[in-house]
Amino acid sequence: MSRVAWDSHLSDVAKNLRPSPIRELLKLTKKPGMISFAGGNPDPAIFPVAEFSEATRILSERGREVLQYGPTEGFEPLKQFLSRWMAPRMGRATAPEEMLITSGSQQGMDLLCSVLVNPGDSILVEDPTYPGALHTMRNRGARFVTVPCDAEGMRVDLLPGILDRAAAEGHRVKFVYAIVNFQNPSGATLSAPRRKALLELAKERDLILFEDDPYGHLRYDGVSDPTIFSQDDEGRVVYACSFSKILAPGSRVAWMVGDPELIRRMVMMKQGNDLCTSVVAQALVYEYCNLGHLEGFLPKILKHYSVKRDGMAEAFRKHLPAEAEYHIPAGGFFFWMRLPGVDTKELFLKAVDRGVAFVTGPSFFANGGGEDCLRLCFSFAQPEELEEGAVRLAEAIRDLKS
Amino acid sequence: MSRVAWDSHLSDVAKNLRPSPIRELLKLTKKPGMISFAGGNPDPAIFPVAEFSEATRILSERGREVLQYGPTEGFEPLKQFLSRWMAPRMGRATAPEEMLITSGSQQGMDLLCSVLVNPGDSILVEDPTYPGALHTMRNRGARFVTVPCDAEGMRVDLLPGILDRAAAEGHRVKFVYAIVNFQNPSGATLSAPRRKALLELAKERDLILFEDDPYGHLRYDGVSDPTIFSQDDEGRVVYACSFSKILAPGSRVAWMVGDPELIRRMVMMKQGNDLCTSVVAQALVYEYCNLGHLEGFLPKILKHYSVKRDGMAEAFRKHLPAEAEYHIPAGGFFFWMRLPGVDTKELFLKAVDRGVAFVTGPSFFANGGGEDCLRLCFSFAQPEELEEGAVRLAEAIRDLKS
């Protein structure tokens, strides 16, 4: 009995697939007693289980509709709710043909790549950025051009030069990918002047902007800057948001808003991808919102996560060596840290020995870099673990230097 | 204010996207009083709404798990259930690493294309076949080689010649797509000797087979032939099945079974596509099965749909002209009909005037053809509509000839 020799059958993309380095690292962190600052998951301890269960009444009330195939564009009542609820952030109530419900923002990203990117085309991404985005983009055959970030997000002032050099090197940049609020992993928020400058540059150079905003609702201090979408009158900004961080990632319900011409093509691609997002999941999420539970839940998670954020900040202040460079994020899930002269891959092994885990920097850099950086997530660990985790991390840093 | 000129931004696939012709036709059928034999939807009148609602108890019982991100491979209890439940059809209890839960079979098809097909590669499809599959395959840049079908399914005897000619014409055939039971649209089932011959040919020529089986459980007469998967000892058959027809398409839960090497790569592609299928939807489907409702529901739908099948057969026998050529399907949702000398696109317009709808033949042919064919679905129309629909169809045929 001979098995299929797959190498001769695979597509080019499949031949180049690599298991996610983060997944490999996370396997090492499954030991008992491990304090995990690694995975960027919400805290299941505050999932609104009772309220979400209450929403299941829509299955008995509208079962024949909810159990049937739904429109590819999304469950209409959910779209209407989102248009109203998001109007303050979007600058207006967006029209139905501007919105597409997706199976998580991850699918939105994949659909956007599928309608814009040919294999070999490039995407301009932040350095560092969300590795899941890089994975999706690589699966669509994309190459990358990177732009550095600082405490105010993407260095928009460097973009003209970067774009010129990229064009000279043969890159065809199809869109700019920016996580605008409490970025994963840097925690930084793109400042209002930079949002304006980025949109101006996009107009000048005929660029498409993908404004990814999964953390926008998780602001613990200060006030939100206007979305880039709300300032765009040319249809060149595509905006994505999700229920993963503000309700439950297991629902896999997110949405994209953009120019109707673009959305229409994403809908046609989605017909081929999965016909429609689970109507059951969409209907439960809709009913949960409709019952007022989303508005009730948001203040709770803001308090819950801001306490954790403060706990991690205080623990780092108390226990980490002075050379650790980081900012305290005003929202989201992440601290981003630089430890000059430290190889965080080596640190990771010491840290896991000590019983604390994080994600090493290079995972977040599309074209390499970040060896002395690490991401520390405060959303998932329990409050009492924050200080102990910082103590262990400090010990691991000392281990490495001794 | 100038809008984005999208044509200069789109990918090659997006530039060539065409709205589904079926969707366009279906819009014409939304008139009041229309009897629809068009869309291939299950009958919402028998959705197990109460039983599915009962399954929502898993949300209260395991909410913290079900609302969190899940493994890309699928919700483990559902995979275990399916391995046991499908063992008689699969020939054995398949291993966890052989199975991937997908967001509908449609996603499984897309993932399979993504790991096997480069743009410009070809897929060997049945003539006629499911238009949704053609749409997914086109979105991945595939071309098509076609093989005719008869009452016993794919003409496997013609395949060697077809493959030789295709190779000579520069086609690189990456897999063979067969809907093995009660095919959409032909209603035909691939006979046992042809299944064997197809697998033999696949071994001889090192072909990959995609055995798509959404209707396999909907057999009204006779006994099932062994799956091709169960006869394969080389890992070259990928098998897909779905809850869409046996429970509820709105769940968007399906599964694929195949060689672990292939499944592993599909999992990595799916990580980029949507991270995982809605855990909420998977958990509800699992609990519904776990409560024994799937086994309870299957006899009900078999009876429900076989009565409709018989009703349509009797109505066609009584009212349609003798030149109408069709077989009575032993399962599934569809009658496939040939009306020699009739252009079914013209017939469609007459039929819609008379108040009955169907899908015209050419939608089902990858490279053209089928002008005198039509698909008539009996699952969705109500029992009392079957005879009246046949009367109207007969009138439309007369209208066309007068």
From TrEMBL, chains A, B:
Transmembrane segments: none annotated. InterPro entries: Aminotransferase_I/II_large (IPR004839), Class-I_PLP-dep_aminotransf (IPR050859), PyrdxlP-dep_Trfase (IPR015424), PyrdxlP-dep_Trfase_major (IPR015421), PyrdxlP-dep_Trfase_small (IPR015422). Its cofactor is pyridoxal 5'-phosphate. GO terms for molecular function: pyridoxal phosphate binding; transaminase activity. Residues 54-393 form the Aminotransferase class I/classII large domain. One of its GO terms (biological process) is alpha-amino acid metabolic process. Keywords: Aminotransferase, Pyridoxal phosphate, Transferase. Homodimer. Belongs to the class-I pyridoxal-phosphate-dependent aminotransferase family. This is Putative transcriptional regulator, GntR family.
